[in-house]
């Protein structure tokens, strides 16, 4: 035998298949054909029915020449149709483009044009929004406009007038569209796992949204990583509070098929709805932004289910929830797993891997540990915090700030039609997140801020996240977000936007503001203390993230903080 023969054995059809999460659905239908796959109001389907419906969707699309290279956009909240789109569209060889329902018509028009969506599937509630977006697109393209196939998704929870409105304008009803498809459609997995499975768009807060392109391999690996990271077992009951249109629901549509679990759809996320699903639907897991956790903790007692009938596992992502919220969730019986990631990394790709010895710590100390973004997912090959000037890792001292960078199979293919952004994002062989963090001695990373959210006051860097964490400890504060406001003396100073808890007497905002500032002076360095406080609801994205760019604009409109004069 030659010295290198051991590495020269070739791939063949028997020992190599391109990775794709689509096969999870076929297996679920085989293993548990009669197990409930999805519940939405009075509707429920089994895994066999879901598989057949997805094959019908793929077949119906294929009959209309939708295939490899085609993009299908879907504008919908968490409903069975959106779940089915994650399988049926790529089964036809096409790319699924889930659209944020909270975007305006102008932005959606840009997305449809940029992605060249050949089909638009839209929930009846959002049909007029889609219609307006398509009109803008038609006006721009003029005689060159080729209208996409328009499919309207009916929902029993919606006013039926909106459905009739869509039908009167030529849209095809989703169930009627499925009837044109074959439930035994012979779909084929991609021959190349690098083929695109999904296209999603960033928020576009500072420029036009960027199209994030994801492949079958990454979706497969992330779907299974979710299982390992969260220690999930077959038959889980998962509540859809996280929008499926956000990072493809962090790949959980595919994860649930792999586990033959049950999806409980929640069209609108309320504390009452979440607690009701836990009590009545056997929910064991759900994902949610920190703002949702805050809502659950502070919900009126008559909306809560206390104690919970079982431990309910919650995955939250991004900037750390305030320690007070984490403590509240633990006291209510929720077990929170803190993760972090981006659209460009298929959703969460780091996890605060919980260590058994932390169970012996006080709830306050546990919350501090849980506020860290943690270590890389099992499906991610590289993660570090680096000095962007020389790309050298920062010391693991818990204080030196650097940028979080990623490398591996769950990093996007790139941004669609945007070579300049790709060059910047992938500089020096890493994906650059733009998030600033420290690395602790145990290797766990902790976000300190977005690079654009750091407040530079008198030459000193102030982490808006750390100021917010102190504000959340104030007994009257429900939500808090801190941004930079122009300051005549210091260049910038912290400006706090605060939502007060229900029941707090808001008649004297000046008195409350003074009390908040007094609290801050007792709990943080003097230069961190907000010089201005604004009360009211915080603007949020569809996933519950505070839109800091909106708050920054408001702070700028307020004008600079005036230099005090004697």
TrEMBL record:
Matching CDD domains: ttLC_FACS_AEE21_like
InterPro entries: AMP-bd_C, AMP-bd_C_sf, AMP-dep_synth/lig_dom, ANL_N_sf
Pathway: Phytoalexin biosynthesis; 3,4',5-trihydroxystilbene biosynthesis; 3,4',5-trihydroxystilbene from trans-4-coumarate: step 1/2
UniProt keyword annotations, A-Z: Ligase, Phenylpropanoid metabolism
One Pfam family of this chain: AMP-binding
MF term (GO), any: (E)-caffeate-CoA ligase activity
SUPFAM superfamilies with a match to the protein in the record: Acetyl-CoA synthetase-like
Domain of life: Eukaryota
Single biological process term from Gene Ontology: phenylpropanoid metabolic process
Signal peptide: none
UniProt xrefs under Gene3D superfamilies: 3.30.300.30, N-terminal domain of ligase-like (3.40.50.12780)
Family: Belongs to the ATP-dependent AMP-binding enzyme family.
Protein name per Swiss-Prot or TrEMBL: Uncharacterized protein
């Amino acid at each position: 035998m030659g010295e290198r023969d051991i590495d020269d054995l070739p791939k063949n059809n028997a020992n190599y298949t391109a990775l794709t999460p689509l096969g999870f659905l076929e297996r679920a239908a085989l293993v548990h054909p009669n197990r409930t796959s999805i519940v939405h109001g009075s509707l429920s389907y089994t895994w066999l029915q879901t598989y057949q419906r997805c094959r019908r969707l793929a077949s119906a699309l294929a009959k209309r020449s939708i295939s490899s290279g085609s993009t299908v956009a879907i504008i919908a909240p968490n409903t069975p149709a959106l779940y089915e789109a994650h399988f049926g569209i790529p089964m036809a060889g096409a790319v699924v483009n889930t659209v944020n329902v909270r975007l305006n018509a102008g932005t959606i028009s840009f997305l449809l044009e940029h992605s060249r969506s050949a089909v638009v599937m839209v929930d009846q509630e959002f049909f007029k929004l889609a219609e307006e977006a398509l009109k803008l697109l038609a006006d721009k393209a003029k005689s060159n406009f080729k209208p996409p196939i328009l499919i309207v998704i009916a929902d029993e929870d919606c006013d039926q007038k909106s459905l009739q409105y869509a039908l009167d304008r030529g849209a095809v009803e989703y169930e009627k569209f499925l009837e044109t498809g074959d439930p035994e459609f012979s779909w084929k997995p991609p021959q190349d796992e690098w083929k695109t499975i999904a296209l999603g768009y960033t928020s576009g807060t500072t420029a036009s949204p960027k199209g994030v392109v994801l492949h079958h391999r990454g979706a497969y690996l992330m779907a299974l990583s979710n299982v390992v990271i969260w220690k999930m077992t077959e038959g889980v009951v998962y509540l859809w509070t996280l929008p499926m249109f956000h990072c493809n629901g962090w790949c959980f549509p595919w994860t649930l098929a792999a586990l033959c679990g049950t999806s409980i759809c929640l069209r609108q996320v309320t504390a009452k709805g979440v607690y009701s699903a836990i009590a009545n639907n056997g929910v064991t897991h759900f994902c949610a932004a920190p703002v949702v956790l805050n809502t659950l903790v502070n919900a009126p007692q008559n909306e809560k289910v206390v104690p919970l009938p079982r431990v309910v596992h919650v995955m939250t992502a991004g900037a750390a929830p305030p320690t007070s919220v984490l403590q509240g969730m633990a006291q209510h019986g929720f077990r929170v797993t803190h993760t972090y990631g981006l659209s460009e990394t298929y959703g969460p790709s780091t996890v605060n891997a919980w260590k058994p010895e932390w169970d012996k710590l006080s709830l306050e100390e546990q919350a501090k540990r849980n506020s860290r973004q943690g270590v890389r997912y099992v499906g991610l090959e590289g993660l570090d915090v680096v000095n962007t000037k020389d790309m050298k890792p920062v010391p693991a001292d818990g204080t030196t700030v650097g940028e979080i960078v990623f490398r591996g199979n769950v990093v996007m293919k790139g941004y669609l039609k945007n070579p300049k952004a790709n060059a910047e994002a992938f500089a020096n062989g890493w994906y650059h997140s733009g998030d600033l963090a420290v690395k602790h001695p145990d290797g766990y990373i902790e976000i300190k801020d977005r690079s654009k959210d750091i407040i530079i006051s008198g030459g000193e860097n102030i982490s808006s996240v750390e100021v917010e964490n102190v504000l959340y400890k104030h007994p009257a504060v429900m939500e808090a977000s801190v941004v930079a406001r122009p300051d005549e003396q210091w260049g910038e100073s912290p400006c706090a936007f605060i939502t007060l808890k229900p029941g707090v007497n808001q008649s004297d905002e000046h008195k409350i503001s003074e009390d908040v500032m007094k609290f801050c002076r007792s709990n943080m360095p003097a230069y961190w203390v907000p010089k201005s406080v604004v009360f009211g609801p915080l603007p949020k994205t569809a996933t519950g993230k505070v839109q800091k760019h909106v708050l920054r604009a408001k702070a700028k409109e307020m004008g600079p903080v005036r230099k005090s004069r004697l």
